[in-house]
Amino acid sequence: MSLPSFSVEGKVTIVTGASRGIGKALAAGFAEAGARVALVARTVSELEATANEIRSKGGTAIVVPTDVTKPRQLAEMTRKIKEEFGRIDVLLNVAGGAGDIWVMPPIDMPEEHYDELDGRNFKAVFFCNQAVARVMIEQKSGSIINISSLSGTKPVIFEAVVGGFKAAVNQMTRALAMAWGPDNVRVNAIAPGLTLTDRVKKKMGPEFIANFSQGIPLRRPANPEDHLGPALFLASDASAYITGMVIPSDGGPQ
Amino acid sequence: MVVPDLNVSEKVVIITGASRGIGRALSLGFAEAGASVALAARDVSRLNLVIEQARASGGKAIAVPTDVTIASEVKKLARTVVGEYGRVDVLINCAGGAGSRPFIPLLEMEESRWDSVLALNLKGVYLCCREIGTIMAKQRYGSIINFSSGAGTRPVQGQTHYGAAKAGVNQLTRVLAVELGSSNVRVNAISPGLIATQASRDFLDPKLFAKFEKAIPLGRAGVPEDILGTALFLASDASSYVTGTIIPVCGGPE
Question: In chain B, helix, strand, coil percent, each to 5?
Answer without folding.
Answer: 50, 15, 35
